[in-house]
Amino acid sequence: MLSYIVRRVFNAIITLLVVTAVTFGIFFAIPKAIGTDPALLYIGKQSDPAAIEGIRQKMGFDDPIYVQYGNFLKGIVAGREYSNGPDVTDCPAPCLGYSFSTDQEVTPLLLEDIPVTLSLALGAAVLWLIIGISFGVVSALRRGSFVDRAAMTTALAGVSLPVYFTGLLSSAIFVYALGWLPESNYKPFTEDPGQWFTSLILPWITLAFLFAATYARLTRANMLETLGEDYVRTARAKGLTERVVIGKHALRSGLTPIVTIFGLDLGALLGGAVLTENVFNLRGLGYQALNAIRQNDLPVILGVTLIAAFFIVFANLIVDLVYGWIDPRVRLA
Amino acid sequence: MSLGPEASVTDEKTAPTADAADRPGEQAIAGRSLKQIAWRRLKKDKVAIAGACVVIFLIVVAILAPLLIKLLGHPIDEYHNDALDTELGTGLPKGALGGMSWEYLLGVEPQTGRDIFSRIIYGAQTTLTVAFLSAFLSTLFGTIFGLAAGFLGGWVDSVISRIMDFLLAFPQLLFAIALLSVLPDEFFGLGPRWSRVGVLIGVIGFFGWPYIGRIVRGQTLSLREREFVEASRSLGARSGRILFRELLPNLAAPILVYTTLIIPTNILTEAALSFLGVGIPPPNPSWGGMLSDAVQFYRIDPMYMIIPGSVIFITVLAFNLFGDGLRDALDPKAR
Fold first, then answer.
1. Quick one: signal sequence residues (chain B) (predicted)?
2. Which of A15, B11, B22, B94 has its CA 20 to 30 A from that of A207?
3. Is the overall model pTM greater than 0.95, yes or no?
4. Interface predicted TM-score (ipTM)
């Protein structure tokens, strides 16, 4: 088991390194290739040449790309110092550089956004797991019944609806037409739990609807497959109650693929629910990312992409470890 | 020993649900027989056929877009102040339901008065082009790399599988947005619309190939060990023949199914990217872009949001219904 864990952790680190290298390469090489000067983005177009040159030296934009990448990595691990002689700026670890547009450090900027994204993703995840799995199981057990057909039709509609449409539609109905909910105005949980909750209800439901649809379809398919397995028949033949057969034999192995998907989905969402956050004006990582992209703020884009990749890779790692624990065969592969 | 025609005759006599389970050998006899069985099953699946009809209708509409706009609509960037309520200064469409009338079939945009019908139809052209071509690109790459990984095995398999895992473990939407925002708006003299279509096809197609690649690889791994491949090899067939005459025909069904199912995903991705402002550049219409414009107005003019949203929904649903039906028809075990 230990060697399995070590191998997985090692793989995760390699993946993260590759993601940073690729992202770094693209965001610093492509602008250069099409003639955008990062120093100009940083300081604005009207500045005098001496100031631009100063920034260029300070940020190291003239260094070869691998040197810049090396410095970037060093900044994450140990912090770094920007200097061009007289002008020195210290950026403590984990340093992701300075925002081009606001001149702030990227790390604290992003740390502020994480709780919003976390609230959104975790709340929605609880909802979609409960709704998706229970409807999937009931549909599989009552195959062909009214509940099954209704649930699967809704689920099919759910996977075909874009989240930015359901988001707008649900605000139009529940906020503006019926007035059941106040206009979305996020407050941190620690400041005002009530407002935190009401501002997140619609985003949670919207996001959960999309994922619950996928999970219901998946759970149903997996359950139907396991219910046809020999060991389920054996369990029934032994005279076990239906409750034990379903709960202990069928459900457990039927849900293992769900664990994988759940890890990936949650990991991807934690890196920023770009669409949902933008529809509901929630200032999380996804909102920040889009803003940064609109302003050509490369360090922030790079930072968000990195955090997102970190969450995905981390979620993958957890899934792999949980899997190795559930199913010993995986460890040997 | 061609049992193709015979197999289809016996198939007609038995109930369609029993044919695969009772005589498992027959499915493997010939590709044609499977095709006929699948076609017969698909024809009975009314929901899938309805989905297919909608899909075909949309394709025809997209192809005939310029003609339809000339006959039933107005040029996509023509402003119609006469259709707007300018007296109150709101700039909202005149009349109920966002200004729907015989003159403007789906109403007009608030403030500009552009014809929504024309813009939806024109958007269909862009969306379907992006969705189909990017699906084609994903399928092409996915098949080539999946086949190579599954058939060659060894280090080729390790490298390709690693790359696929890596791409799947990547913040794709975020990355696509960022990439699209740094790429140039125009190149090869294609104009802003088709340049962006090209870039979108490339980006969406590229991120889609591992999904198909993994399935092709898995199927190839199991097919490679089957007796008919062994037989072919013992008869002296070269790798090329085994790949293209033995393996590929057997992979056609899953490839077809997953290509059909990746198209609706691509439609949603394209719309999402346009919604976020990195897709098709204005003033060229796109469904996602129209939804994004509607954000400012949906409180006072909800139809402007509902129309593009519903069009996306109907299109994606139709493709999903057809894809699901196709999968059930080609692979009876899936249900």
1. none
2. A15
3. no
4. 0.81
